[in-house]
Structure formats: C-alpha cells, structure tokens
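Many introductory courses stop at the sequence. We go one step further.
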Amino acid sequence: MNSEKRELWTQIAQCAVSFGLGAPAYLWVPPDNPFERLLAALIAGFGGLWLLTFLWVWLRHGWKAARSLTMSPGG
C-alpha cells in the first residue's frame, strides 16, 4: 500500500475514533444548551484521541517517547 493511501486510511480511523468518543459525550450532556453538548463532544473526542495515542506510544516506544508527545504539527 502506498504512503498516501495509508495516510488517508489513518486519518479516517482517527476521525472514526474521535467520533466514537465524542458522540456518547454529546448524548450524555443534557440538551439545555447546545454549545455545552458540542464542547463536551469536542473535548471527549480530541482528548480521548490524544490519550489513546499517548497510551499507544507508551506501550510501543516507552515512557520517554510518550512524555515527549506533542500535538503541534512541527513535532
């Protein structure tokens, strides 16, 4: 599989995981204020994906690599 296709499938998987973590948070928050629901979904999706990535890197590459994990595009 070429790298562009692999990158596309990786991005699709990340989107699916974020949605899978954010959707229950969106449904769990009472519908009094739609912005609160959206914020809860965004935090759960983004934060959950970061936590899963952190745990994956920790298991595969060790604690030092996981601690140096950053969300900035430049690394």
